[in-house]
Amino acid sequence: MGRVLWHVTMSLDGFIAGPGDSMDWVRGQAGPNETAAEVIATTGALLVGRRTYEVEDRERGGFYGGAWSGPFFVLTHRPPDTVPEWMTGTFVDEDIRAAVDRARAAAGEADVVVLGADVARQCIEEGLLDELVVHVAPVLLGEGVRLHDGAGRGRVELERTVVAASGQVTDLRFRVVGGPRRDGRGAAAEPDPAGTARRIVRANRYLTLGTADASGVPWVSPVWYATADAREFFWVSSPEARHSRNVAARPEASIVIFDSRVTPGRAQAAYFAVVAEQVPGDELERGLAVYSRVSEAQGLSPWTPADVCAPARHRLYRATVSEAFVLGPRDERLPVRLD
């Protein structure tokens, strides 16, 4: 399951489009950009606002200047009467959660990128946004469309994860901090443990697997994982690895997923009690499909049965979640329902 990202270029005074939704100021900042290239490479689908679609219809340059192609969805209550010939996406008139679910299904294990301030605001309000990627251009526009016009909607906490420079452009990447958010009236909303758990799972690629041998001696291992729904985790290991031998002797195990880059006091983690096993032959195809989607989304090769069956040195393993928890606002563990 990929992340949901808001990707945007912003003027130094906080505008993402000029008067009349003009974007000519962005073209003047064009050039190689490693941060943008990474976003493009990991994007499986776009969720686009109506105004962004209208800019694209006017400019006809293709998303990311034609550097990206794939499924995209335009969220609007007013689909045009005549669809232009370039439009290969889908107009959708539904609530933001349904639209994000639709885009995620199309993206598979890759990321969903949100384009458009209003769509991004809706994602933020519903706790659906995982990351924000901003390219700050060295220009003052004075007026236009602001990055986030969220007056009265409460504060959004972010954790900076990347600061880089591409020519004169400053690249910033932020993780949306989970926990309590605020509703449209500015009142504290209830924590969303399931949303927080899924956000942590989507935003990371390594888990810490805790196992024990038959006599109860513990062992922990970092494991690169894949999951489709945060209820099952798949990984590939040698059956001779210590954690693999432990799983064979004692299948009860634990998993912790966390981002080690956050500052003290801002930590988030998802905790899982699991039952682990080597994936049996009749379920190998399904497990490999999940694992390969994540692998390919990261630019790696897909996995086949020949890669995880004798005489190959690796096997496919699975952990099925029996209990899940996240950290609450007072550092307590909150139970999570993932159904």
Secondary structure topology:
Blueprint: E1 4-11, E2 15-17, H1 24-27, H2 34-41, E3 43-49, H3 50-59, E4 72-75, E5 90-92, H4 96-107, E6 111-115, H5 117-125, E7 131-137, E8 145-146, E9 158-166, E10 169-176, H6 193-203, E11 206-212, E12 218-224, E13 232-237, H7 242-249, E14 252-258, E15 269-278, H8 284-297, H9 305-308, E16 315-327, E17 333-335
Parallel strand pairs: 1-6, 1-7, 3-4, 3-6, 4-5
Antiparallel strand pairs: 2-8, 7-10, 9-10, 11-12, 11-14, 13-16, 14-15, 15-16, 16-17
Keywords:
339 residues; alpha/beta; 8-stranded mixed beta sheet; 24% helix; elongated
Brief sketch in words of this structure:
The protein is of the alpha/beta class and 339 residues long. It has 9 helices and 17 strands.
Q: Counting H and I runs of at least 4 residues, what is the number of helices?
A: 9
The proportion of strand residues reads: 25-35%
Global Rg: 22 Å
Largest sheet geometry: 8 strands, mixed
Structural class: alpha/beta
H and E order: EEHHEHEEHEHEEEEHEEEHEEHHEE
Please state the average pLDDT score: 86
Q: What is the number of strand segments? A: 17
Distance between the termini: 15 Å
Please give a structural write-up.
24% of the residues lie in helices and 32% in strands. It contains 9 helices and 17 strands. The chain has helices spanning 24-27, 34-41, 50-59, 96-107, 117-125, 193-203, 242-249, 284-297, 305-308; strands spanning 4-11, 15-17, 43-49, 72-75, 90-92, 111-115, 131-137, 145-146, 158-166, 169-176, 206-212, 218-224, 232-237, 252-258, 269-278, 315-327, 333-335. Strands 5-4-3-6-1-7-10-9 form an 8-stranded mixed beta sheet, sandwiched between helices. Strands 11, 12, 13, 14, 15, 16 and 17 form a 7-stranded antiparallel beta sheet that branches. It has a two-stranded antiparallel sheet with strand order 2-8.
